[in-house]
């Protein structure tokens, strides 16, 4: 196999950097996983009423997103270590969901927090230290976006699948939140307490729209970063 053929196997023609690889790709995935572990450590070191409630911390969209991000980067790091193109494809498949979700988490959290921190933090919860706040609500979106822009082939997802995924996730989460409420008698986010059912439905519909918009924004930026060379032309 000549040099060009080997490069096509290791890197898509429209992929900015080589991945899977044991250099930059592995460093990004390992660094991301270290940040995610730092966030989980906070949950363990600072137990609160959520620990003993139905659904644990998985009631929070933040923790669901963090778990998906962890799964994505775990598979990504495994692909770097083994140089497995099959695991690399699995990582890219997971990223189609985990990356827009983390962008959604960041937009909703920081947007609502700017309006009123009491919308996202219950009265009994102390403010998160800055580093943990960023590790929960900023770093996952940043590192997943970097992975998409620099280390992934172009996304081929179209409008219909993106909208279907966003609706399933948004209203699936609504069902999960209501199930937890039926057991616990409280919602994970105070904003849910302040909204009546039609308003909550509107909020989840808006979240689905933001998720879908995030998917296409990431896809568009990826195209701008990686250019529009014809398949078969290798960059670098």
TrEMBL record:
Pfam families, A to Z: Far-17a_AIG1
Subcellular location: Endomembrane system
GO terms for cellular component: endomembrane system; membrane
Transmembrane residue ranges: 21-40, 60-81, 93-110, 157-176
Source organism superkingdom: Eukaryota
UniProt topology in membrane: Multi-pass membrane protein
Signal peptide range: none
The entry's keywords: Membrane, Transmembrane, Transmembrane helix
Keyword Transmembrane: yes
Alphabetical list of PANTHER family matching this protein: ANDROGEN-INDUCED PROTEIN 1-RELATED (PTHR10989), AT02829P-RELATED (PTHR10989:SF16)
Protein name, entry field: FAR-17a/AIG1-like protein
Organism: Rhizodiscina lignyota
């Amino acid at each position: 196999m000549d040099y060009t053929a080997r490069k096509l196997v290791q890197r898509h023609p429209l992929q900015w950097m080589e991945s899977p690889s044991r250099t930059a790709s592995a460093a990004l995935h390992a660094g991301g996983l270290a940040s995610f572990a730092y966030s989980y450590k906070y949950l363990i070191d600072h137990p609160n009423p959520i620990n003993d409630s139905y659904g644990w911390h998985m009631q929070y969209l933040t923790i669901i997103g963090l778990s998906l991000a962890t799964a994505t980067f775990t598979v990504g790091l495994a692909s770097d270590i083994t140089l497995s193109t099959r695991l690399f494809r699995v990582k890219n498949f997971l990223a189609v969901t985990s990356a827009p979700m983390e962008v959604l988490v960041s937009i909703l959290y920081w947007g609502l927090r700017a309006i009123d921190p009491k919308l996202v933090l219950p009265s009994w919860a102390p403010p998160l230290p800055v580093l943990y706040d960023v590790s929960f609500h900023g770093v996952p979106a940043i590192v997943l976006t970097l992975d998409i822009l620099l280390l992934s082939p172009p996304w081929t997802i179209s409008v219909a699948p993106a909208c279907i995924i966003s609706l399933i996730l948004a209203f699936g989460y609504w069902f999960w939140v209501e199930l937890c409420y039926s057991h616990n008698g409280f919602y994970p986010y105070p904003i849910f307490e302040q909204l009546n059912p039609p308003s909550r439905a509107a909020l989840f519909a808006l979240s689905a729209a933001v998720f879908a918009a995030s998917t296409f924004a990431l896809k568009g930026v990826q195209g701008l970063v990686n250019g529009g060379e014809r398949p078969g032309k290798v960059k670098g």
